[in-house]
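re: ur question from earlier - yeah i can do the single chain one, its not a big deal. heres the input i used so u can compare w yours
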Amino acid sequence: MKNIHMFNNQQCTSLTANKFSVLKQSAFTLIELLVVVVIIGILSAIAFPQYQKAVEKSRAAEALSIMKTIKQAEEIYYLTNGDYTTDFSKLDIDFGLRTGTNSLDLKAFKLMLVPSAGGIFLDAYRKGGINGSDYWLNYMFDKSSYDSNLKSGNFYCSSQTKKGSELCESLGGVFVGGSGHKRYKL
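and the output i got, formated as tokens:
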């Protein structure tokens, strides 16, 4: 049997069971709230690593784009002077960033022009150096005897971890070998 009562100008129904009156209310129980929180936690645990991969891939793509600009400036320098330089200040580019003679500090990367036996490398390392990074990017201007897997005129992504290898592959890298670390041609 149903009775209708008025409380604060609102109509609500009450159920009569024996002599006790129980109000029917619409609210979430603690269990329902906990289930929702657990579901949100599981979804965020799945999504966050994918978000981190996407951010890292965009940082690497930015560094690669800047490396291509430096490569073009080095080629112009080579056509003018007959040799490549390891000094960023001699190149006809201005990033508006702090530069050293052979290094350029980006937000997430450090770019360096490194002389090696028979050539010059353009390297991009994540801040923290090669040992603190899962991967790094390379470009070689001249033929070098440093690594037979490297061919001048190509961009490479090198990795020493599985996470770095996955990133190199996501940038379109094709595995070409390597000693001590994996190298991918981009």
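Helices lie at 30-81, 162-170. not sure if urs matches, ping me
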